[in-house]
Amino acid sequence: MLALQERPPLLWPEYAIASPKDFYELIDFHSPKYVRALFSHNHESGKKIFLLGNRKSGKVTDLKAFKRKTTRYVQGVLNSKSEAVNNYYSPNEFYSWPRAINLAIFRANWIDIDITEKVDASKVRELEHDLIEKVIKILQKNKIPPFTGYVCSGSGGIHLYWIYAPVDAFQINKKLWKAIADILIESLQSIRALWCIDTTASKRAYGNLRIPGSVHGRTGLQARFFGGGPKYQFEELLNYLNLESLRDSLRLEKELRVVRLPNEPKSNRPKQQTQRRYGHNIKDWWLKCINTLQIHFRKQGKVPKGKRDKTAFILFVALQHLNKDTAFEKLVKINDELIGFSLEELDGLTKTAKSTFYKYKKETLAEYLEDLLDYRPEYLCTKPKVKLSSDEIKQRQKKAAKDTATKKRQSTQELVESVYKELLNDTGKKPTQRQVAERAGLGLRTVKRYWFCQVEMPEFPNQRKV
Questions:
Q1: What stretch of H or E contains 93?
Q2: Across all residues in the chain, what is the average pLDDT?
Q3: For an engineered disulfide with 154, which of 106, 216, 264, 297 has Cβ 3.0 to 4.6 Å away?
Q4: Which of 380, 413, 437 corresponds to the end of one domain?
Q5: Residue 465: pLDDT above 50?
Q6: H/E/C letters for each residue in 398-450?
Q7: Does the pLDDT of residue 359 top 60, yes or no?
Q8: Whether residue 239 is found in the same domain as residue 108
Q9: Do 211 and 328 fall within a single domain?
Q10: So what's the pLDDT on residue 56?
Q11: CA-CA-CA-CA torsion for 87, 206, 237, 110, nearest 10 degrees?
C-alpha cells in the first residue's frame, strides 16, 4: 500500500443511524446535475435500468415511482409483499445512458464489503455491528480518513462511503478516482473469514449500490444508513491519501501531450473546394450527415461534453457507409479536431459498430441528429402527407386514366407510322394493313383504327378488303 505521510490525525466521529433522506441530501440523490441510474431486477416493466435526473427524454423517472413498481413477495423477517425490493442506484452521474464512457461527475468513492455465507435474518444486524467495529479499527490503524457514512445492505455486508463535493469526470480525475479506490481497498485487505471486499464493485465508477431504505429480497431487512462523518472536497481527500504527486504528474503529462503547431502562412493553405452537390444514393445521404455535423460543431469550436459519445458513434457509422477500410482513420482526424477522446476511449466507443453494420431509418436518424444539433436537418424532414377527399381521388384517377390512354394511343400511332415507312422503303410499294400488322406485332383491328389517322408520312391508300 502507498505509505501515507504523517498528517494531523482526523478525529473519527460517532456514527449513528440516520434517515435515508439524510443520505439523499449528502449525495444530492434527487437533484443530480445530469442523470444517475436506478436499477432493479424485479421492476414490473421487465426493464432493469431507469434514469433519474435531467434528460431530454420521456425515459426519466423519479424514485417514488420507481419504488412503487418494484414490488414482490419477500420472506425473511417480512414474510409478506413489499415495495422497493432490491433497489440499486449509481452514486456517480452520467451525461446519458450509464456506462464508463458517459461518466460526467464523481460524487463519492466507496468500498463494497460482502458476506461470504448466507446468514439467517435474525443474526444480520449483529454481524453488521461486528463488521463495522473491525473496519473502523483497521482504517484507523492504516491512517485512512474517516468515511462519511456507511449503509448496511440488509444481508450482513456494508457499503462505506467517502462522499465529496461533485467534480467533473475528466480523464485525470478518472485516474485519481481509481487511485483512491486502490488505496481504500488495500487498506482493508486484512478483513477475512465471514467477509470479503468486492473489488470489482469498489473499482467500478459506473456501478450500482443498494439504495438506503430499500428492502433486501432475501432477508426482508431494509438497507440502513449510518451517518456522522465529514463530507470532503475531492482535493482534500487526495491530500489525506498522499495523492498530490500523482495528481501533479498527471497534469504535467497532459500539458506535455499538447503540441503547438507553427502558424501556417495563408498563402500556402490549399483553396477550399466548393461544396459538392449531393445525389440521391445512400452514400451521398450519409456524406451529407457527416458534413452537417462537422459544420455545426466547427461553428461552436468543439463538440460539447454530453454529446461527444453520440457524435463520435454516428460519425463512425456514417463513415463506414462510405468506406469501411478508412472509417476509423477518418474518425480519428475528426476526433482530434472536434471531439477530444483518447484513442482508447474512441476504440471502445466504436467497438460494436465495427462488428455490426448499422442502418438507420430516415426518421430515426432525424431524431438522433435533432438531439445532437438541437434542430432537425431540412433534408431529413418528412413532408406531411395530405389526405385527399374521395372526389379529389376520383378526379386524379380519371385524369391519370386519360393521360395513360393518350400516351398509349400516341405510341401505337407512331409504331404504325414507322412500320409503314419501313415496308414502303423495303418494297417500294404501299404496304397493306395486314403486312403492317404482322411487322408491328399488332392486331389487324388496331392497325385499321389508325390507318386513316393524319400522320406525317406518305398518304395511306384507300381502305380496301384484305
A1: strand 93-94
A2: 85
A3: 216
A4: 380
A5: no
A6: HHHHHHHHHHHHHHHHHHHHHHHHHHHHHHCCCCCHHHHHHHHCCCHHHHHHH
A7: yes
A8: yes
A9: no
A10: 55
A11: 40
